[in-house]
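Q: Isoprenyl transferase, please. Structure only.
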Amino acid sequence: MSMKLPFFKKKQTEQSDEQDPGSTPDHVAIIMDGNGRWAKKRGLPRIAGHREGVKAINRVVRAAAQSHVKVLTLYAFSTENWKRPASEVDFLMKLPKEFLHVYLPDLMENNVRIETIGDIQALPEYTQEAVTYAKEQTKDNNGLLLNFALNYGGRFEIIQAVKKLMTDLEHSANTIDSLDEKMFSDYLFTQGLTDPDLLIRSSGEQRLSNFLLWQLAYTELWFTDTYWPDFDENTFNAALLEYQQRKRRYGGI
Ligand SMILES: CC(C)Oc1ccc(CN(CCC(N)=O)C(=O)c2cnn(Cc3ccccc3)c2-c2ccc3sccc3c2)cc1
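A: Structure for Isoprenyl transferase:
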């Protein structure tokens, strides 16, 4: 399993849950929730909420790049995934192409690299093409890594990692004794990334919803009642400030 060390990989010490106090988080993960409720509150169709939600993504990407966050992992969570009307699913699967058409020049300008975790094979062909094109176009950028969790599930990710690991162990001289946290983390979709330092979830829910279950072991959790479409750089910076204050307190012990 060749391990391409990305430029920002921390030194190879065990991933401790310490950061220098009061610093900017290297890796921020966001559960983007609330598009539907935002639209409903305004008597708008749900797809208006998704359209505003994409604008919020662009605001947060710019704020993260300006704050020198290294990795931003976005999870477009919604429980209604399976009970959405076909028209909404159709809209959602066309939205990435529009998002990239509108924002890719801006992302290139800001030296943003796009990556994904999860099973993009499950997406429609035209959506996969848009994603693959965006990854290709941005692969040499070395600024913010913008990582989309697509058709992602934390427990599925752990099960597939165990299966791959067992298969590898069957065909190697290594025994299960060689397994440690570092080795296991290399079998996850987030291979090569440091764990999130800060998790943000919008719209008032305070649950992980099967997101990055292994990786969030030491992550600071920050929740806001703000619906995702209303999320902007001020909301993002409030989360960073709270993170820094928590880290200073920790550092103060
Ligand atoms: C590289 C990137 C541009 O490619 C992508 C390819 C496929 C998808 C669609 N998608 C994956 C399918 C799934 N359900 O997992 C979602 O995650 C999903 C579920 N709700 N919303 C609305 C929403 C919009 C904005 C914020 C939260 C939710 C989205 C959604 C749709 C279009 C866009 S554009 C940027 C993000 C985004 C999110 C996503 C990205």
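A: Brief note, in case it's useful. Residues 32, 35, 50, 53-54, 57, 76, 78, 81, 92, 95-96, 99-100, 114, 116, 123, 127, 131, 134, 148, 150-151, 228 surround 6TC (CB under 6 Å).
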